Structures are given as structure tokens and as C-alpha cells.
Amino acid sequence: MDPSVTQSSVADSADAPVSRSKARTESISQKSDDSQTAADFIRDQMQLEADALEALPYSIEHCTKPLGPLRQSVFACLTCNPPPANPSDPYNAAGVCYACSVQCHGEHTLVEIFTKRNFTCDCGTTRFPASSPCNLRLNPETNTKGGVHSEEPSPNNKYNQNFRNRFCGCECDYDPFQQKGTMFQCLGLGTHETGGCGEDWWHPGCVVGLGPKWFENMATDKVKAEAKDTNGSLPTITEDAETAEQNNNQGAEEAEDDNDPPPPPGFPAEEEFESFLCYKCVEAHPWIKRYAGTPGFLAPVFLKQGDAAEESAPVATNGDLNGSSKKRKAEDDEADSQTSKRPKSEVDTTEPAEPPLSAPTEPSTDPTPTCKLITLPPPPQPSRGPFSLFLTPDFRTNLCHCPSCFPLLTPHPQLLEEEETYEPPVSSAGGGGDDHASQHDGSSTNGGGSLYDRGESALRNVDRVRAIEGVMAYQHLKDKLMPFFQQFAESKQVISAEDVKGYFAKLRGDEEAIREAGERVEREGGGGGGGDGRQEESGY
Q: Are residues 108 and 208 in the same domain?
């Protein structure tokens, strides 16, 4: 026998277990890095539940369709009901409630339309395909929850372009992740069919006729004007000037990311009004034009600024617009205000048609109320074009309620009293507000609640005998796992996924696990004598 070959073979045989052991150590080390303690896992689960509760603060257990028409948050599903590419083509619009947007359309492309009045959820109706059922309502055919489809929708629902993901008079597609600024929702006197907007959302720039990107265009015009002032000559470029310009550009980009653009010229400051009526709704109901500039109503804001913008001074600006239920992000791209501050009540005061804010009004204490419209000046001249109205919080008390004017108000309850918006019950510890009682009577096992609460609720719903058997099985498993966990606790080692899998395989008595365990013992040199013990054990 060649000694060199023998030594090489022995060396290879000696190195092989070391390599396998090293690889196994590295594998366990890598898995340990990806492992986590039970405390870490519980903390992560609690954080996930807290994040989910913050993102979805309301109960998502019940569809609002059985409640009938409500003023509620509405969502349009573009996955189940995609709009046509041509806006002029007919479209069978549909909207769903808050709960259905999560439970039935949670993985779809949704458009958040915010609040719509007198709206009934369309989920599970013929406005959606049968393949998109409602998972929350009770199916009358099976008497089980879910699988509801092809029901008749409410004939009283009104739809506008918002359900196509189109907003404002500019009819733009809305992308909340790219667009900036604030949009305002019209109080909505008229529907889309009657010439109004149907509670549409408006860019401030579009309300005054400057367009959605008015501030970006204004900044571009300013740059052109500055270039014109240099008479076309090229400025001297120095290294310091170039560095300063880069710093200014970087600061402008950061300001653009952090701040919203100011209101456009002619648009009132946010704190001066509570709601507004767009020019479409005002034109559809011209009787309300008489209130322009009277108590409760700011001076008219014309669509075509033109002469009106020249006659009126700039209004107060608010570069930091706070969000509310009447606001929505828009697609303005700059955030630097150049207009001075001035109360909106002083706008357009040079026009003879605009009355002062202290216009006299008749109190309605007489047995026969006097019509307030008699004391009001005529509306602005039609030649000025359409205009929008901005309303202060007390505008309702200044509307005339005489026998002649009251019939004009009754079709619009929002003009008589402030509307209430339906909100689902607030979730409690991740569960629906109506799940609180069920946590005491054990009537609910699915839906909200923490993992512990849902497990406790499920245990209460189980038959007593099965519950006792389950507790005994849990106790037996606990007794089996305690020694396994104890050895890692004493050695300060992290339990890897492979350790857990191997231990449970051993408990189950898997043939593969037993075979792998035997091979591992053989590789690691169990029994001494290089395997002679195994041959002697055969006894055959």
C-alpha cells in the first residue's frame, strides 16, 4: 500500500467531520441570528396590533347596508368595478362602506371618496359582479355570514365622477401619494344630474380659475420675469454662487416636501369659513346668490378672476393648512406664499353690487315673518361670471325661513342643520366596539381583539368536555416542553427554528427524524471502537 495515499485518505476522513461540524455550526449561528425570544415575539405582535388599530380604528365587522341611507365614508373599488378608459362612456358606478372596504375589498385598488350623504353600501349588489360578494352580511339562502351577491342596490344613491377616481372641475385623477396641498369638499346643493357637483372635492386654484397647479405656474412665470430683467445677458457664475444656488435648491425641495402651497389669490383663508358651495351648485340654485357677502356668507369668489382680482386685494394666506373632514390633499407642487394677509371680508368691497357685512336683517319674531331677501341687495351682475360661496359657521341662522323661502331650503337638509356623519363603533384593543359585549358572553370568536382575547373567547365557545380535554392536552404539552426550554435557558443559548422542528419531530416519532438522529450519532462517533459496537450488537 502506498503510504502517501493512505495518509491522504486518513486526512480527508479526519477533515470531513470537522467541515460538517463547522457548516452545522455556521448554519445554527445564521438561524440564531434570525431567531427571536418569546418576549420579542410577543412585543412584535403587540406592536403589529397597535399599528393595525391606529390604521383601522373602527370596527370592520358589519356592513352598513342594513342600516339604510347614511352620511358615511364611501370607497370605490376600481378592481371589481373598473371605469372605462373614455370618460364619456357609461359607467355603472358603485361604492362600499368602511367595513366592506377592508373585509371584502382589502386587497383591491380603492378610491377613498370620504363622506357622501344618503348613501347605502353597494357591496353584494348587482352593481358589483357576483364574483365579488359581501363577506359581512347574512346570506338568506344559507343563513350563514358571507357570500351575499346580486342583491338590488338602493335606487336613491347618487354618483358623480369621484367614483371613477376623478375629482374637481379639472377632472383630474387623484393620487394621494404624489399630490400635495388641500382640497375642499363642496356642501353639495345639486347632484351631477341637476347640474351640481354632488359633493365633489375642489382644488383652491380651480375654484378661482387658476387651475390645480397655479402655484407652480406662478413660480415659472416669476423665473421668466427675472430672466427678462437681466436683458438676456448671462450672469457671472462663481463657485460660491453655484454652491449657494445648490443649497437654496435643496432647501426649496425640503420645504416643498414639508409644506403645502398657500391659497391662491382670491381664495379665502381656511380659518375664515367652515364650508363652501362651488360655482356649479350655485348656478344650479341661483336663489342662493342673493346671500353673497351678507352675514354668514363671505364675498363671492368668482371663477374668472380677471377684473375681480385686480379690484380686490390679496386675501389672508395660510401656508400650513390643517386637515379636517372637509379637506383632501391636492396636486399643488410648491409651498412659498407671496401674497399679503388681509381678511376675506374686505375683498371686492369696491364693487357697488357687494353689500357690507353689516347689512340689516329682519328678525323673525313677528307672527308673519318678513322675508329677509327683501332687505338683501341684488346678486352680483351675471356679466361677472359664475362664483362660489364660502360660508361661516353661523350661516344657517342667517337664511330666510319665511313661507316663501323655506320650501327652497327643505330639499337641502344640510342648509337647515349640521349633518351627522355615521361612524362605526370604535375598536377596543383591536376589536370592534360592539365586540366588547361579546368578549363577556363568548358570542364572538372572529373579528377583532388581541390574540389572547380571541383565544379566550374561542375557549369559552367550546363544549365543556372538549375544553377540559384541550386544557389537559395543553398541560401535557407544557410538561414536555419545559425540559426542552430549560436546557437552553441554562446554557444561555437562543432557540433556533431547527431546534424546535427537531424536538417536535422527536416527540412525534417521525421515522425520518429518528434516522437522521442515528446518522448524526454515527457521524459524531457514538459507541467507541469506530463502530465495532454496532457489529457486535447484531448477534447474528
A: no
Residues 6 or more apart in contact with residue 241 via CB below 8 angstroms: none
The strand ranges marked E within 280-421 are 301-302, 327-328, 387-391
CA distance 365 to 368: 8
Domain count, the chain: 3
Are residues 434 and 401 both part of a single domain? no
This prediction has a pTM of 0.61
What the block records as the C-alpha cell of 79 is: 378592481
In tens digits, what is the pLDDT along the chain, a chain of 540 residues?
A: 444 444 444 444 445 444 544 554 555 445 445 566 667 777 777 888 777 777 778 889 999 999 999 999 999 999 999 999 888 888 999 999 999 999 999 899 999 999 999 999 999 999 999 999 999 999 999 999 999 999 999 999 999 999 999 999 999 988 877 777 889 999 999 898 899 999 999 999 999 999 988 888 676 655 555 555 555 554 555 555 555 556 555 545 544 545 677 889 999 999 999 999 999 999 999 999 999 999 999 999 999 865 444 444 333 333 333 334 355 544 443 333 333 333 333 334 334 344 443 444 444 445 456 888 888 889 898 889 999 999 999 999 999 999 999 999 999 999 999 999 999 988 765 444 444 444 444 444 444 455 566 666 666 666 666 667 777 787 777 788 888 888 888 887 788 888 888 888 777 776 666 677 667 767 765 544 444 444 444 443
Work out whether the CA dihedral 44, 49, 50, 54 comes out positive or negative: positive
- 15 occurs within a structural domain: no
358/405 same-domain check: yes
Instruction: Please calculate the CA angle 365-369-373 and round it to the nearest 5 degrees.
Output: 120
Q: Are residues 216 and 301 in the same domain?
A: yes
Same domain flag for 262 and 327 = yes
The C-alpha atoms of residue 269 and residue 343 are separated, in whole angstroms, by 8
**What residue type is 357 in one-letter code?**
L
- Crossing angle of helices 464-491 and 497-508, in 10° steps, is 130
Residues 299, 399 within the same domain: yes
CA distances to 53, 272, 423, 432, 435 from 60, rounded to whole Å, are: 11, 36, 11, 7, 10
CA distance 65 to 153: 9
Instruction: Kindly state whether residues 280 and 157 are assigned to the same domain.
Output: no
Q: Is residue 185 part of a domain?
A: no
Task: Report which of 62, 47, 43 is spatially closest to residue 427, judged by C-alpha positions.
Answer: 62
What nine digits make up the cell of 227? 430672466
Neighbours of 163 (CB within 10 A): 25
Rounded alpha-carbon distances, angstroms, from residue 94 to 123, 157, 192, 201, 213:
8, 9, 15, 18, 30
Domain carrying residue 222 = 201-228+258-362+369-416
Instruction: Please check whether residues 122 and 223 belong to one and the same domain.
Output: no
Cα(469)–Cα(374) distance, integer angstroms: 83
